[in-house]
Amino acid sequence: EDQVTQSPEALRLQEGESSSLNCSYTVSGLRGLFWYRQDPGKGPEFLFTLYSAGEEKEKERLKATLTKKESFLHITAPKPEDSATYLCAVQYNIQGGSEKLVFGKGTKLTVNP
Amino acid sequence: NAGVTQTPKFQVLKTGQSMTLQCAQDMNHEYMSWYRQDPGMGLRLIHYSVGAGITDQGEVPNGYNVSRSTTEDFPLRLLSAAPSQTSVYFCASRRGGTNYGYTFGSGTRLTVV
Question: Does B5 lie at the interface with A, CB-CB under 8 angstroms?
Answer without folding.
Answer: no
